[in-house]
Design a protein that fits this description.
Belongs to the PTH family. Its main location: cytoplasm. It catalyses: an N-acyl-L-alpha-aminoacyl-tRNA + H2O = an N-acyl-L-amino acid + a tRNA + H(+). The chain has a single domain, classed as Peptidyl-tRNA hydrolase (Rossmann fold). 34% of the residues lie in helices and 18% in strands. It contains six helices and seven strands; from the N terminus they run βαβββαββαβααα. A hairpin with a 4-residue loop joins β2 and β3. α1 crosses α5 and α2 crosses α3 (116-125).
């Protein structure tokens, strides 16, 4: 490990049928970052796709676990272990059902909040002390979604066109915030991102 090494993990489920589902917001961010920098994801031996993400000379990796959400830790932890990336230089991007669509919240540590991908990473890593970038997807009963829709079905359903566009419009600011995090400016990143309601 070098002091500049960093891992950004976008959570989601692999396969085309999951591409625009609410649970794949982490993949959406990862793909955006890669495309903006002309990078392509390559398969790795850790059940994940990865690419480089250059920021000011730092060696940064973007990771998309291919294990399905509930087993995300089985991809993330071996990858970080191999490259000797410590928990405090790991940023996990994921959906959050308890926040309105498009709201952004950058936090350090905390509980899983019912998110199975976060639960898997925390259990496998052995600590909750890593960075999370939460992106709101709303919950059943918000907007046009029936309130009685099961949460499991809701997160695996496609984002509506308006919700998808709301999130996509915020991706350039998300990229700016992530760059601040990598440079060690966490407070500045939180000021930038956590105001996005």
């Amino acid at each position: 490990m070098r002091d500049t090494d960093f891992a950004i993990v976008g959570l989601g489920n692999p396969g085309r049928k999951y591409e625009e589902t609410r649970h794949n917001v982490g993949f959406l961010v990862a793909d955006f970052l890669a495309q903006r920098n002309g990078e392509r994801f390559q398969a790795t031996k850790w059940n994940a796709e990865a690419c480089r993400y250059p920021i000011d000379g730092c060696r940064v990796f973007i990771l998309k676990p291919q294990t399905f959400m509930n087993l995300s830790g089985r991809a993330v932890v071996p990858f970080c272990s191999f490259y000797r990336i410590p928990a405090d230089r790991l940023l996990v991007v994921h959906d959050d059902i308890d926040m309105s669509v498009g709201r952004i919240k950058l936090v350090s540590g905390g509980g899983a909040g019912g998110h199975n991908g976060i639960k898997s990473i925390t259990e496998t890593l052995g600590t909750p002390e890593y960075l999370r970038l939460k992106i709101g997807i709303g919950r059943p009963g918000d907007g046009i979604t029936p309130g009685e829709m099961p949460v499991e079905a809701y997160v695996l359903a496609n984002l509506g066109p308006h919700d998808l566009e709301t999130i996509r419009q915020r991706l350039p600011l998300v990229e700016e915030g992530i760059a601040l995090v990598v440079r060690g400016e966490l407070a500045a990143a939180q000021t930038l991102l956590n105001r996005l309601k």
